[in-house]
Amino acid sequence: MANIKSAKKRILVNETKAARNKAIRSKVKTAVKKVDAAIVAGDKAAAQAQLISAITEIDKATTKGVYHKNTASRKVSRLTKAVNAMA
HAMAP family, alphabetically (predicted)? Predict the structure, then answer.
């Protein structure tokens, strides 16, 4: 356990940031799962609607520094490719 006051503060701040990042990642994962579920169900309209919301969540996570921009780009690309392949 930390003895120095600043180290104790850093622990608290890191826990707060980790909780925030975890919540944001969870939102992204949920959005991606909704897109995947729509793809499996074969509902193209729903998949496209879910894709838009998933891209929004991924972009928000990137803006907040949770995901690297290339990681976000890769996720968006793969999701879009999957939805477009539903023809």
Answer: Ribosomal_bS20 (MF_00500)
Q: Is 38 left (phi over 0), alpha (psi -120 to 50) or beta?
A: alpha
Name the architecture of domain 24-86: Up-down Bundle (1.20)
Predicted confidence pLDDT, tens digits, the chain (87 residues): 889 999 999 999 999 999 999 999 999 999 999 999 999 999 999 999 999 999 999 999 999 999 999 999 999 999 999 999 987
| Phi, psi values for residue 30, rounded to 5° | -65, -45
Q: Give the distance between the most distant pair of CA atoms in the chain.
A: 61
Q: Residue for token digits 């290339």?
A: 70
